[in-house]
# Entry
Amino acid sequence: MKLGFYPGCSLEGASREYNESVMAIAEEMGIELVSIPDWNCCGATAAHNMDKELSLSLPARNLALAEEAGLTELVVPCAACYSRFCATQHELKHDENLHKKINGIIEKEYKGNLRILNVIQFIEEFIIDKLEDKMKFEINKKVACYYGCLLVRPNKVLNFDRTEDPQTMDAVMKKLGADSIDWAFKTECCGAGFSVSFTETVGRLSGQIIEDAVHRGAEAMIVACPMCHSNLDMRRPEIDKYNKKKSDMPIIYITQAIGLALGIDRKKLGLQRHFVPVKLNDFKPYTKKTEVENPQKMEVE
Amino acid sequence: MARIGVFICHCGENISATVDCAKVAEAAAKFPGVVHSIDYKYMCSDPGQTLVGNAIKEHNLTGVVVSACSPRMHEPTFRRACAEAGLNPYQCEMANLREHCSWVHERNEKTDDKAIDLVRMLVEKVKRNNALQPIKVPVTKTALVIGGGVAGIQAALDIANAGHKVIMVEREPSIGGHMSQLSETFPTLDCSQCILTPRMVEVAQNPNIKLYTYAEIESVEGFVGNFIVKIRKKAKSIDESKCNGCGLCTTKCPNKKNPNEFELGMAKRPAIYVPFPQAVPNIPVIDKTQCTYYKTGKCKICEKVCQANAIQFDQQDEIIEVPVGAIAICTGFDIKKTDFFPEYGYGKHKDIIDGLQFERLASASGPTAGEIRRPSDGQVPKKIVFVACAGSRDPAKGIEYCSKICCMYTAKHAILYKHKVHDGTAYIFYMDIRAAGKNYDEFTRRAIEEDDAKYIRGRVSKIYERDGKLIVVGADTLMGAQTVEIEADMVVLATAGVANQGAEKLAQILHVSYDQHKFFSEAHPKLKPVETNTAGIYLAGACQSPKDIPESVAAASGVAGKISCLFSNSELTREPLIAVVDRLAPPQYSSCTGCFMCQSVCPYNAIEREEIKDRNGNLVKQLAFINPGLCQGCGTCVAVCKSKSIDIEGYTNSQMYSEVDALLNF
Ligand SMILES: Cc1cc2nc3c(=O)[nH]c(=O)nc-3n(C[C@H](O)[C@H](O)[C@H](O)COP(=O)(O)OP(=O)(O)OC[C@H]3O[C@@H](n4cnc5c(N)ncnc54)[C@H](O)[C@@H]3O)c2cc1C
Ligand code: SF4
Ligand code: SF4
Ligand code: SF4
Ligand code: SF4
# Structure
């Protein structure tokens, strides 16, 4: 099976392990992810702070290229790229004149028929049903699923999960055998793009997130956004400073968690690349639950 | 031949300062058909009216055009004057020279010309007026009150005490509504049950009131004075004539773990139950969805213990048909539940409750016998946070309006809390304190000044649970919008007041309108606050919008007054300005083609099918027939009728065209 794929800048740079783990589980499931030919930056935070047309044109060009390449689904693992893509699709769909104008700017015909999937939608649609057959381990750990801002908001545009207490990642983790905890900071801001300019603010915001998860006994935090990951992982010294205590809870991508359950080599999942070492091991071997729940009934049939 | 009289009024100087009235009268005198035209300072005064009356007699007038102010103001005055002089009142028309001319224009020639045009139009119209007779309909002097909350109770008692019959239909097993759940009431802190229960008993005992509980409206047909109502009496599984209310069945029923609706899920009740001890009537019902016998075919313990043989497992719903003359809608409201709030945990935290639950906790007859104890572990909360405007005044939540009662009941809750937990602290997050009403602001001041309620002006963005505490995160906008975090033991959301369940369906059964929030709409927000747009159907209480008790009761008495007025005549008189389908000689009978487009658009269901049959009883033609009792003269049917077969009396097509022609062909 072939699906469109937009890696974006993060997945080629600081978050290579996210890319590696997405590719690794796709390969395991027999899915081919085809990158958009000649893709460009989605504009990220910078473009839409400066120029509305630029912020729509950059994603629109990518979307048009994907359509030209004959793709119908586009997997966008980075939550920021996903948010920009969806916002563009939404705005152009609801404003015909703007749509025409942007098509003029990108000198391409973006039709707007593409289905944009974030990583969880990708998992729900193409992976989750096949998990049982391929799982080798249960992730028998207490985990805190962290969604951040961009995956579920604004609900009007994304129409994905509940805004305040989202559940989709938790459902995936439960499927992997994890105990995904109910906690309070699932959608609090991690500090996002201030990672470089206001590290102390990031230390405070991410610090509150880490503290609550650790306090509730989480052994790992599961994420689906490169920006959240880098703040929660790379900024751990600032976080620990804010919390006035050291924490060693690793931050892992949901695709890495799936990879672990599938028994994929840790290196292939890029787990060695994290700042906070991923020590998690001792997973329970997985045995598929017997499908025949009611043997008697089967006999009759 | 038409003989029209024209009467130009100066309206003091209101008209004459701008319009040359004498000139207009002169011009009008020359219009074809006008035989008399004068101007006068105050036409509506006694001498003015006499002028009109005398002219009718003297000049043998067939039509009158009074050119003065708005017909909304004085049309009835002049029509009466005409009638007294022997002219059919509907042969009198008014040209509005004040609002439509003098008040909105400068004094100049064009203004005079416009005034002359206005008179010319009405002269042409009145030539085509028909003599009409007011419509008379009989009245059934029985009122139907739907809903037995405090509003319904008040309306029923007032109507009954005026000597009329009342049928009250209440959906629940007992009357009382939300007021029966309240602990004490603002702004006086008198006990809600103590003031309500006697009135409930009065309803049950009043010989003029027939009470149906556990019943709903199935259908309503007919029109003002003559409604036919079908009531579905749901099976209680109890023979009400035998049950003496001993309560043995409810104590012996082994199936006791069902959520108690009256206590809002904070207590349990048996499958056979009386909603609360003071219930009226004091007769239990069996909840068939819970009863072991209905589910498994075994048990019947209640039947065994009942000395009166009152249990009837095979009882069926009963449909009762009653004629009534007027209907009072008193179906009240509901409040949003805590699961409406994502930011407060979608209802998953047990110790975040709504205002009604707090009322039950504070009530002496409630699940904690009046002690404030939190639902999760029964601890007494030492820090309690109230969140006002939870959901209300929030377009993002689809509720733009202010729920009106919550500022006051939140202040009350803070006071009651302090009276019961002396060493506790109550915080209230609010947007504005809306305490307009007699002794209301004083009451909120009392909460702040005497009972130490800590009001924080700002919204709560999030509440989460941590180590058994609820962390309330809000902003204090009077302290530079700084973040406030309170570790609370319990949180009470003053959730938005919303339309009651089933309001929309009931509105459709009754053909009355409702707003986008499913509250029933009044006919006019200022001048007809207790009427609906359907004649003979009234509304009172919180079914119209969130209301407190005094307001609900006042509206209910208003409705009772209206209904008593209606019932003071044996016949009703209505303006005959209604739609009629034309009639022609056979074999055509009418130009109506029987397409019944009109029937589908009439908002009042006034259009029926009339069958024309020959002597042998064979169907010749189907025609639209407009029920004069129901038609409100809105004219919608006229607009859709392709064959132009319908006219509104007083505003016929030919009358309207003649007015336009009068302008165009001059
Ligand atoms: C938490 C809280 C505290 C309050 N405290 C105060 C206070 O201290 N002082 C004060 O003045 N006000 C207070 N109020 C407001 C008060 O409850 C209302 O003003 C009052 O209940 C309105 O009366 P009602 O009869 O219009 O409606 P309701 O009390 O809602 O009664 C409506 C009745 O109609 C019945 N019904 C509904 N639909 C149907 C149907 N389709 N067919 C038949 N029957 C139907 C219902 O079962 C119910 O019995 C408070 C409200 C709340 C929520
Ligand atoms: S049904 Fe029988 S047992 Fe129950 S309250 Fe009535 S009389 Fe008593
Ligand atoms: S038959 Fe039903 S209502 Fe009667 S005692 Fe048994 S469970 Fe209770
Ligand atoms: S009455 Fe007060 S608490 Fe209720 S919605 Fe209005 S302002 Fe808010
Ligand atoms: S005038 Fe209005 S109310 Fe009367 S029959 Fe026509 S549509 Fe119905």
